[in-house]
Amino acid sequence: MKTDNHGDKNSQTLARRLPPLSALRCFEAAARLESFTKAGAALHLTHGAISRAVRALEEDLGTVLFERRSHRVFLTAAGAELLHGVTHALDLIESTASRLRAPKPKALLVLSCEPTLMMRWLIPRMPSFHAAHPEVSIQLVAGGGPFSFNAGIDLAIRRNDFAWSADTQANWLFDEAIGPVCRPQQQANWTPQQHDQPHLSAQAPRLHSATRPQAWEQWLKLKQIPGDPAPQEQVFEHFYFSLQAAVAGLGLAIAPWQLVRDDLANGLLCAPFGFLADGSAYYLLAPQAISEDSAAGQMLHWLREQALE
After folding, report:
1. Nearest to residue 61, comparing CAs of 17, 14, 7?
2. Strands (E), 34-183
3. 5 phi-psi bin (left φ>0, alpha ψ -120 to 50, beta other)
4. Backbone dihedral region of 30: left (phi > 0), alpha (psi from -120 to 50 degrees) or beta?
5. Rounded to 5 degrees, what are φ and ψ at 87?
6. How much is the pTM?
7. Does residue 8 form part of some domain?
8. Do 89 and 76 fall into the same domain?
9. pLDDT at 13 over 60
């Protein structure tokens, strides 16, 4: 509430008793450069304009600020005291203005992730992370197996199918669960029902991946099905390709649930036998413990949420 009472901080009649601000700027330049001419050049003013500004400031303060000798000027004791205060005030204004002008830098995290997990699970969900945490910038790097945090990687998503160093902080994300998947139109032929249970047809083409060569053998063992080779088998260079081949209807592929859950939900694939835990799990790896309120902590919390949805 504004008042007319003298001394009240909200009084409309109370004004700051400041020297002319333009004159202070001229004074600071002249004192710093020890020359009215150089100060005028720095401020794009004439020598006379600087001289008049300093004279007006001296009259306002009632004290001499400079000793004029030949073509140079030297501060008096009063001038030195004023320069100290003006310099401090200008520095404060400059730093405040710089903070206001500059956008706050985003927290950048370089996240390494296995290529198939990145393409089929992580990238489709990244928009929700950016919406929830616009202040965090993520750079995704494709990579699998061993890596080094010294190579510019902040975090890594890996399955525990290799040994990492004892110093690595491993944060569990989700357990792996695998099972055969195929196009729904081929389910009846490749996994026909017998006694109300799906049966793996010997004629069903099996799709393999060079990066997970034991996938079928592992699943057959978990399911306790004899591991006889199928008459039709096809091997793909990367795991991602074998899953895409299943989507295209080329055969049955062993797939982790997280990597095909979107295709299952959209009806592109079906899982006649469901999924079985294979004993492995995915982790978010970090070089040190992750604090909850850090950018890495936000990423960890979000990843766990996505795995449970």
Report:
1. 17
2. 66-69, 72-75, 107-113, 136-142, 155-159, 169-181
3. beta
4. alpha
5. -60, -45
6. 0.66
7. no
8. yes
9. no
